[in-house]
Predict the structure of RNA helicase.
Amino acid sequence: MLQKVISEEEQERTPYKYVPQARNVDVLFYEDQKSAGNYADVVDHDDDIVIENFDGPVIRMQKWEEAELETQLLINIKERSKYGRPRKIQAAAIPFILDQFDIKSQGETGSGKTGAFLIPIIDCCMKAKKATNEDRFESEAAAPYAVIIAPTRELVMQVYEQAVKFAADTGINIAKCYGKYDIGINHREICDGCDLLVATPGRLKQFITVGEVRVKKLKFLVLDEADRLLDSDFLDDIKNIVGVAGFPDKEKRQTLLFSATFPAHVMSAADEILKPCAVFITNRRNNPNKRIKQDFVIVENQGKLDKLCEILKSEAEKVGGTDKMRRTLVFVNTKRMSDLAALFLCQRGIPATSINGDRGQHLREQALSEFRSHKVAVLCATDVCARGIDVKELDHVINMDFPADADTYIHRIGRTGRIAQGYSTTFIEEFGEMVKQFLKH
């Protein structure tokens, strides 16, 4: 009997009828509980937040109770997640969201931006379900109360998981949609309940255009990593989504934009989808998170893999083995190099895997899962992991290839230093102007 030979291309291809598997909510609560000690300290060291385009008195929450959140939501935040008090971005943003303002919110990486929009939206949805007036919201198949758009599938899954965590036992239904998820099963998930829908632009546009997601009840539109979504790669998709027939115009919805960076060239696009009175909540920084210790190492291009291996092997020797190494995320600029770097390290005894846009979605999610669960010490990635991805106890980011621009650098190294001291190492050929800029901070 001849053994069937499976080509490398077939192994990489996302399986037919692929269904992504989210982590159990108890695992998510446990992760938070393990980090509770660090969380208590980090709030005081968040960047200070200023409010722009608003002249009235500003309310900043000191305690979660001040927001008058629904009881089960408050239990999920304080008792099950062990978030003792609001982060600074949350303390500033949540009162404005609850007061029905559009906002554009900028805070350093790891500052709690996801909670800053999920918590008030879930609370508003819970209250709307109990309302007896025109504000009442009744769940309906494929007709979300809120849509949250993120630029990558991995970030959609992460925001989805966090939404499920905050909404546990509240009666609020969370759904997700993104490419490579079997489209029929994906639509069935949405029909089973999607008070909050977390989505990538492409799949969302497809579902809305053909009427499989109806927007007649939509109250909130959120762009997570808004500067990326309003840049050239995604801007047309966003315009097509908000321009579809029946999509509430900006005066009839609440629009929330969140990112760690807001470069000038996306500001006009942001203003197009926000009400004129939108509030800008900002740390006034387009700089790296100050909890990250940055290091720059001069390395010639042809010596990068050897230097990477040298750094990681040296660390393994100091700590007593690769199983005790810091979890390390290595960024490269090409999909091919992410695979080559992981293979190079594995051949030299360092457990590593890779993630990039050419890998099947099942392999992308498997790689992130193995990294999160400590099955591998090193994840070699393209910028598919540069934004928003939160891996607990990720201590070290290595830029084997220098990124194309300053914003990407900020987002890349911002995968560490989120609630504790983080470290970044960046390979450079010389100390250019961009590097000198970061050395000042």
About this structure: The domain at 292-439 is CATH 3.40.50.300 (Rossmann fold). The CA atoms of residues 93 and 116 lie 6 Å apart.
